[in-house]
Amino acid sequence: MGRPGLNRRHLLTAAGGLAVAGSFGFAALGTGADALASGADTRVRYWNLFSGGDGANMIAMLDAFRKANPGIDVKDSTLQWGNPFYTKLAMAAAGNRAPDLGVMHMGRVTGFSPGRLLDPWDVGLLAKYGIREQDFNPLLWRRGVIDGELYALPLDIHVQLCFYRKDVLKKAGLLGDDGRMIPVTSTDEWFDVLKKAKAVQKKGLQTIGLWTNDQNFQWWFFVAFYTQLGGRWFNEDNTEVLFDADKATQVLEFLRRHVTDGYVIPGAPTGEQFINGAPFTWEGNWSVPVFSGAKLDYGATPLPPVFGKPATHAESHAFVLPHQADRGGAANEGAHELAAYVVKNALQWAAGGHIPAYTPTLSTAVYRKLTPQNEYVSAMDHQATEPKVWFAGSTGVLAQDLGPVVVSSTMGSAKPAAVANRMKSRLTKLLASKNPMDGRTAAQGGAVA
Amino acid sequence: MTTSAQTVVVPARARTATAVATVRRKQGFQHGGWFVAPFLALFALFVIWPLLRGVYLSFTDANISGEGASFVGLDNYREALNDAAMWDALGHSAYFTLLVVPCITVLAFLLAMLAHNIERGKWLWRLCFFVPFLLPSTVAANMFQWLFTQGIGLINQTFGLDTPWLTDKSYAMLAIVIMTLWWTVGFSFLLYLAALQGIPDHLYEAAKLDGANAWHRMVHITLPMLRNITGLVIALQILASLQLFDQAVVMMDFSPGPELSTRSFVQYTLEQGFTSYRVGYASAMSIIFFVIIAVIALARMWLLRNREEGTR
């Protein structure tokens, strides 16, 4: 997930604060010229939300496609990440001005009124361009299937990782013979690791960056550890809340303990501290280019399985077909061809830290040599995802509702047990509420493959 | 915070202006209509029509795509009035207003007195106090985001603090208040300065002859003469502060702040409309907000009406 282009982390690395002023509107909205590129007979209009390093990688893949397919003119537009993107996509689809191809977070697809604002993929046409279901993680593929139709073609998964500095861990005796962090299998072991790292680390820095104040990160971490405990959200029919307040309390207490035991400085910038010598930071895999660019000797592993079962939060970028009343013809075929090409040639994409969804890519020699990617590729098989309901998904209603509640527990202004109960009542309320896009509750939406 | 720079009647010119206006009014109105027409057309298109459309939407369950909305009567209003998160957000906007309005009024008055009574370099003082107001909210908010940053921020470094201004719910709103004071005090400062210049000198001279010291002169001449302007400053600030939005959003990296502590009413409305896609519900909240603001504005007009009858 490309983080929004406007936060302190980016500001610190940006050439200057004034660059921010430009990031409010659209970047690169195309030329608006109606003439087709020379020699092309089909135009594919493609909207995405990738900025920064992701944006550069996407553009490189598009350029490779253009070179290979001179008959197709790709008009790509990059829109601002997050809710503004979804708003514009919804309005364009409703007003029949939708692009031929779009990108969404997998978790948001269910709530995006598939069938009304999104058109299903033509699986036969995808097969023609080499996309077959068996080349994907079955759980991931099924997340894009709603009412029996494929609405989202996964491009990647992006996961939360435990980044660690090898120089510090070596000093603390926490590196194995393979040069990777020693495995951790319980909360006690984990805090023991933190303790040892703290003993040898540079003073004045925190031991681990946890984004204690960020409602998105705290929510993602919660989902990861709650899944490790085998916690469930709703029953199969989405008619009943199965949220386990005891398990939730365990997770919240675990997150909180990082603060109370003094391993976190609340509000301290996470990435900068890591670059300056803090032993650990939990971040999304999109930080890989940042840390590699800083020439750090570091590793990255999925979030530690402190509750026994490995699971780390995963979201996924997926290609979608925004609804067009007259979808079909050459532009639609071009959209299928373009999406298939990018999904199958996502090595460039992996450089941004994301794990390509197309599994044959993962076993190529080139991918296996990528570090630290080869260390966390296993996350593909241990995805902790939000429930498949209309209010879930990246920066969606669920995260917006529950994220701040998790933060209040981690920051210590509310007791974990009370917060767990509050989460349960929020979930109950959300389950009963209707998706404004089609007026159906999660149970009526029946968005189960 | 948007401060609508309404034209302000300066009491000094007030009497002549009123006299002229009375003469004009007798000459009839037919020419004026043409001058007003372009404004009225734009006003109808961009204010009146959206407002009416908003009222209509507030009675429906419209979503962002604008399709398939149905009439739901007063449901949205009922839900909003029972929505704890809405009251929280309204509380944040009110709290911000309670902090900003008295501070900015006192500060603007003090700065105006300073700039008015200083002998040399008057223009420089005026410029310094007013220039921040000319900055776009995003620029000013970004500057203060840097100033307030915990580890490397100038404010903590200068005062030897380690205050988590932007990341702790006890300080976040305070940081926005401080930024707002610096950014918008210039507008009220200018109103006061103009009013100060309108106080006739002979009043002060007469008071001096009667042996009044500086303190007496301020309490018995300056403040009473500024009563109307103070009323205006307070009213404009209340209306502007209640609409807290952009500086809070920019300073908090487009989040509702630590533990939702800086989520203003406007921000919550926006979330309902553009994250939850509930345009009907967001419209109902906007209308509720419109009513609150309108009541305050009308109350002010009513109060001023009584006051002007007293002074004229």
UniProtKB/TrEMBL annotation, chain B:
It is a multi-pass membrane protein. It comes from Streptomyces lincolnensis. InterPro entries: ABC_transporter_permease, MetI-like, MetI-like_sf. One of its GO terms (cellular component) is plasma membrane. It comes from the Bacteria. The chain crosses the membrane at residues 34-52, 94-115, 127-148, 171-194, 225-245, 279-303. Keywords: Cell membrane, Membrane, Transmembrane, Transmembrane helix, Transport. This is Uncharacterized protein. The keyword Membrane applies. GO terms for biological process: transmembrane transport. It is found in: Cell membrane. Belongs to the binding-protein-dependent transport system permease family. Gene3D superfamilies: MetI-like. The keyword Cell membrane applies.
